[in-house]
Automatic annotation (TrEMBL):
Name listed for the protein in its UniProt record: GlcNAc-PI de-N-acetylase
Record-level Gene Ontology MF annotations: hydrolase activity, acting on carbon-nitrogen (but not peptide) bonds, in linear amides
UniProt keyword Zinc present: yes
Key words of the record: Zinc
Superkingdom of the organism of origin: Bacteria
Keyword Zinc appears in the UniProt entry: yes
Gene3D superfamilies: LmbE-like
Organism: Nocardia mangyaensis
Lineage: Bacteria, Bacillati, Actinomycetota, Actinomycetes, Mycobacteriales
BP terms from Gene Ontology: glycoside metabolic process
Length: 237
Protein backbone atom coordinates (compact mmCIF):
# COMPACT_ATOMS: atom_id res chain seq x y z
CA UNK A 1 0.00 0.00 0.00
CA UNK A 2 1.56 3.27 -1.14
CA UNK A 3 1.34 6.69 0.48
CA UNK A 4 -0.89 9.25 -1.27
CA UNK A 5 1.41 11.85 -2.91
CA UNK A 6 1.66 14.98 -0.78
CA UNK A 7 3.95 17.13 -2.92
CA UNK A 8 1.13 19.51 -3.77
CA UNK A 9 -0.35 22.68 -2.27
CA UNK A 10 -3.93 23.14 -3.51
CA UNK A 11 -6.74 20.60 -3.26
CA UNK A 12 -10.43 20.58 -4.17
CA UNK A 13 -12.95 18.13 -2.68
CA UNK A 14 -16.00 17.61 -4.94
CA UNK A 15 -19.07 15.81 -3.57
CA UNK A 16 -22.84 15.76 -4.06
CA UNK A 17 -24.15 16.58 -0.57
CA UNK A 18 -23.31 18.10 2.80
CA UNK A 19 -21.85 15.36 5.06
CA UNK A 20 -20.44 13.30 2.14
CA UNK A 21 -16.93 14.52 2.94
CA UNK A 22 -17.26 13.77 6.63
CA UNK A 23 -18.20 10.16 5.96
CA UNK A 24 -14.75 9.32 4.60
CA UNK A 25 -12.27 12.03 3.78
CA UNK A 26 -12.41 14.57 6.62
CA UNK A 27 -9.52 13.08 8.61
CA UNK A 28 -7.29 13.21 5.52
CA UNK A 29 -8.36 16.80 4.87
CA UNK A 30 -7.38 17.68 8.45
CA UNK A 31 -3.96 16.12 7.87
CA UNK A 32 -3.44 18.13 4.71
CA UNK A 33 -4.59 21.48 6.06
CA UNK A 34 -2.30 20.79 9.02
CA UNK A 35 0.57 20.60 6.52
CA UNK A 36 -0.38 24.08 5.29
CA UNK A 37 -2.20 22.93 2.16
CA UNK A 38 -5.08 25.02 0.80
CA UNK A 39 -8.19 22.82 0.54
CA UNK A 40 -11.58 23.97 -0.79
CA UNK A 41 -14.92 22.15 -0.78
CA UNK A 42 -17.33 22.08 -3.72
CA UNK A 43 -20.86 20.77 -3.02
CA UNK A 44 -23.02 20.12 -6.08
CA UNK A 45 -26.23 20.46 -3.99
CA UNK A 46 -27.22 21.93 -0.65
CA UNK A 47 -28.66 18.61 0.50
CA UNK A 48 -32.13 20.11 0.65
CA UNK A 49 -33.90 16.78 0.11
CA UNK A 50 -31.94 15.01 2.83
CA UNK A 51 -33.96 15.53 6.02
CA UNK A 52 -37.21 13.61 6.35
CA UNK A 53 -40.10 15.77 7.54
CA UNK A 54 -38.27 19.03 6.82
CA UNK A 55 -39.15 20.99 3.69
CA UNK A 56 -36.29 21.63 1.25
CA UNK A 57 -36.58 25.38 1.72
CA UNK A 58 -35.71 24.89 5.39
CA UNK A 59 -33.37 21.92 5.10
CA UNK A 60 -31.10 23.44 2.43
CA UNK A 61 -29.97 26.46 4.46
CA UNK A 62 -29.61 24.31 7.61
CA UNK A 63 -27.42 21.76 5.87
CA UNK A 64 -25.36 24.52 4.29
CA UNK A 65 -24.62 25.97 7.74
CA UNK A 66 -23.75 22.51 9.10
CA UNK A 67 -21.39 21.86 6.19
CA UNK A 68 -19.57 25.16 6.63
CA UNK A 69 -19.18 24.44 10.34
CA UNK A 70 -17.91 20.93 9.64
CA UNK A 71 -15.40 22.24 7.12
CA UNK A 72 -14.06 24.74 9.62
CA UNK A 73 -13.27 21.92 12.06
CA UNK A 74 -10.73 20.49 9.61
CA UNK A 75 -9.23 23.79 8.51
CA UNK A 76 -11.30 24.44 5.37
CA UNK A 77 -12.66 27.96 4.94
CA UNK A 78 -13.81 27.97 1.30
CA UNK A 79 -17.07 26.05 0.75
CA UNK A 80 -18.92 26.52 -2.54
CA UNK A 81 -22.39 25.22 -3.47
CA UNK A 82 -23.46 24.76 -7.10
CA UNK A 83 -27.18 24.38 -6.31
CA UNK A 84 -28.00 21.45 -8.57
CA UNK A 85 -31.20 19.72 -7.30
CA UNK A 86 -30.60 17.27 -4.47
CA UNK A 87 -31.63 13.75 -5.45
CA UNK A 88 -32.01 14.73 -9.11
CA UNK A 89 -28.46 15.51 -10.23
CA UNK A 90 -28.05 14.77 -13.91
CA UNK A 91 -24.76 13.36 -15.18
CA UNK A 92 -23.75 15.06 -18.41
CA UNK A 93 -22.53 18.18 -20.14
CA UNK A 94 -24.17 20.78 -17.87
CA UNK A 95 -22.65 19.27 -14.75
CA UNK A 96 -19.31 18.69 -16.49
CA UNK A 97 -19.21 22.33 -17.50
CA UNK A 98 -20.00 23.56 -14.00
CA UNK A 99 -17.35 21.30 -12.48
CA UNK A 100 -14.76 22.22 -15.12
CA UNK A 101 -15.39 25.89 -14.34
CA UNK A 102 -14.91 25.24 -10.63
CA UNK A 103 -11.66 23.37 -11.28
CA UNK A 104 -10.40 26.31 -13.32
CA UNK A 105 -11.39 28.74 -10.56
CA UNK A 106 -9.79 26.78 -7.73
CA UNK A 107 -6.82 25.40 -9.75
CA UNK A 108 -6.27 22.28 -7.61
CA UNK A 109 -3.37 19.93 -8.03
CA UNK A 110 -5.30 17.22 -6.15
CA UNK A 111 -9.03 16.55 -6.58
CA UNK A 112 -10.76 14.38 -3.96
CA UNK A 113 -13.96 12.53 -4.89
CA UNK A 114 -16.39 10.14 -3.26
CA UNK A 115 -17.03 6.63 -4.55
CA UNK A 116 -19.00 6.83 -7.80
CA UNK A 117 -19.26 3.15 -8.54
CA UNK A 118 -22.59 1.35 -8.70
CA UNK A 119 -22.17 -0.12 -5.21
CA UNK A 120 -20.35 0.41 -1.91
CA UNK A 121 -20.19 -3.33 -1.32
CA UNK A 122 -22.06 -6.38 -2.65
CA UNK A 123 -25.74 -5.71 -2.13
CA UNK A 124 -25.25 -2.06 -1.07
CA UNK A 125 -26.24 0.28 -3.91
CA UNK A 126 -24.58 3.68 -4.26
CA UNK A 127 -26.83 6.72 -4.70
CA UNK A 128 -27.63 8.18 -8.12
CA UNK A 129 -26.25 11.57 -7.04
CA UNK A 130 -22.90 10.09 -5.98
CA UNK A 131 -22.59 8.25 -9.28
CA UNK A 132 -23.48 11.30 -11.36
CA UNK A 133 -21.14 13.68 -9.54
CA UNK A 134 -18.13 11.39 -9.48
CA UNK A 135 -18.36 10.35 -13.11
CA UNK A 136 -18.93 13.89 -14.32
CA UNK A 137 -16.09 15.15 -12.12
CA UNK A 138 -13.62 12.65 -13.59
CA UNK A 139 -14.56 13.91 -17.05
CA UNK A 140 -14.44 17.53 -15.90
CA UNK A 141 -10.85 17.11 -14.72
CA UNK A 142 -9.88 16.52 -18.34
CA UNK A 143 -12.35 19.11 -19.64
CA UNK A 144 -10.83 21.82 -17.44
CA UNK A 145 -7.51 21.55 -19.25
CA UNK A 146 -8.98 21.72 -22.75
CA UNK A 147 -9.74 25.22 -24.02
CA UNK A 148 -12.10 24.01 -26.77
CA UNK A 149 -14.60 21.70 -25.01
CA UNK A 150 -16.48 24.51 -23.22
CA UNK A 151 -15.61 27.72 -25.10
CA UNK A 152 -18.08 29.64 -22.92
CA UNK A 153 -15.53 29.26 -20.10
CA UNK A 154 -12.90 31.22 -22.05
CA UNK A 155 -12.61 33.80 -19.27
CA UNK A 156 -11.20 31.06 -17.01
CA UNK A 157 -7.73 29.86 -17.94
CA UNK A 158 -7.45 26.10 -18.61
CA UNK A 159 -6.15 24.06 -15.69
CA UNK A 160 -5.14 20.40 -15.35
CA UNK A 161 -5.02 18.75 -11.92
CA UNK A 162 -2.30 16.16 -11.39
CA UNK A 163 -4.30 13.60 -9.40
CA UNK A 164 -7.76 12.49 -8.35
CA UNK A 165 -8.10 10.52 -5.11
CA UNK A 166 -11.38 8.63 -4.72
CA UNK A 167 -12.72 7.52 -1.34
CA UNK A 168 -14.41 4.18 -1.79
CA UNK A 169 -14.17 0.42 -1.66
CA UNK A 170 -11.09 0.23 -3.92
CA UNK A 171 -7.95 1.32 -2.06
CA UNK A 172 -4.56 1.70 -3.74
CA UNK A 173 -3.06 4.47 -1.56
CA UNK A 174 -3.52 5.77 1.98
CA UNK A 175 -2.53 8.47 4.46
CA UNK A 176 -1.90 8.20 8.19
CA UNK A 177 -4.60 10.14 10.05
CA UNK A 178 -3.79 8.98 13.59
CA UNK A 179 -3.26 12.57 14.74
CA UNK A 180 -6.51 13.87 13.24
CA UNK A 181 -9.30 11.66 14.59
CA UNK A 182 -10.69 14.31 16.93
CA UNK A 183 -10.95 16.85 14.10
CA UNK A 184 -12.71 14.29 11.90
CA UNK A 185 -15.09 13.50 14.76
CA UNK A 186 -15.96 17.16 15.32
CA UNK A 187 -16.40 17.73 11.59
CA UNK A 188 -19.03 15.00 11.27
CA UNK A 189 -20.67 15.96 14.57
CA UNK A 190 -21.34 19.41 13.11
CA UNK A 191 -24.07 17.74 10.98
CA UNK A 192 -26.11 17.22 14.14
CA UNK A 193 -29.62 17.89 12.85
CA UNK A 194 -29.07 15.68 9.83
CA UNK A 195 -27.74 12.81 11.97
CA UNK A 196 -30.58 13.12 14.46
CA UNK A 197 -33.09 12.46 11.69
CA UNK A 198 -30.94 9.95 9.82
CA UNK A 199 -31.05 7.52 12.74
CA UNK A 200 -33.16 8.81 15.63
CA UNK A 201 -32.72 5.56 17.57
CA UNK A 202 -28.95 6.06 17.96
CA UNK A 203 -27.46 9.12 19.71
CA UNK A 204 -25.45 11.38 17.43
CA UNK A 205 -22.26 10.76 19.40
CA UNK A 206 -22.53 7.01 18.86
CA UNK A 207 -23.19 7.45 15.15
CA UNK A 208 -20.16 9.71 14.81
CA UNK A 209 -17.86 7.35 16.66
CA UNK A 210 -18.97 4.41 14.51
CA UNK A 211 -18.45 6.29 11.24
CA UNK A 212 -15.02 7.64 12.20
CA UNK A 213 -13.85 4.23 13.37
CA UNK A 214 -14.95 2.68 10.07
CA UNK A 215 -13.50 5.45 7.89
CA UNK A 216 -10.12 5.58 9.64
CA UNK A 217 -9.41 1.95 10.38
CA UNK A 218 -6.15 0.23 9.44
CA UNK A 219 -5.57 -0.49 5.75
CA UNK A 220 -3.97 -3.75 4.70
CA UNK A 221 -0.32 -3.22 3.80
CA UNK A 222 -0.16 0.32 5.20
CA UNK A 223 1.81 0.92 8.42
CA UNK A 224 -0.63 3.08 10.40
CA UNK A 225 -3.19 2.26 13.07
CA UNK A 226 -5.57 4.82 11.59
CA UNK A 227 -5.62 5.58 7.87
CA UNK A 228 -7.89 6.90 5.13
CA UNK A 229 -7.65 4.96 1.88
CA UNK A 230 -8.10 6.15 -1.70
CA UNK A 231 -8.01 4.89 -5.24
CA UNK A 232 -5.50 7.22 -6.92
CA UNK A 233 -5.67 8.37 -10.55
CA UNK A 234 -2.89 10.34 -12.24
CA UNK A 235 -3.75 12.91 -14.92
CA UNK A 236 -0.60 14.96 -15.47
CA UNK A 237 3.14 14.71 -14.89
Amino acid sequence: MEQVPENWQRGLVIVAHPDDIEYGAAAAVARWTGQGKDISYLLVTRGEAGIAGMAPAQAGPLREVEQIAGAREVGVHTVEFLEHPDGRIEEGLVLRRDLAAAIRRHRPEMVVLLNFGDTWAPGLVNSADHRAVGRSAMDAISDAGNEWIFPELADLAPWSPRWAAVVGPVVTHAVDVSAHLEQAHDSLAAHRRYLQVLNPAIPVEEQVQEVIAMATGPKEGFPAAHAVGFELFTFAG
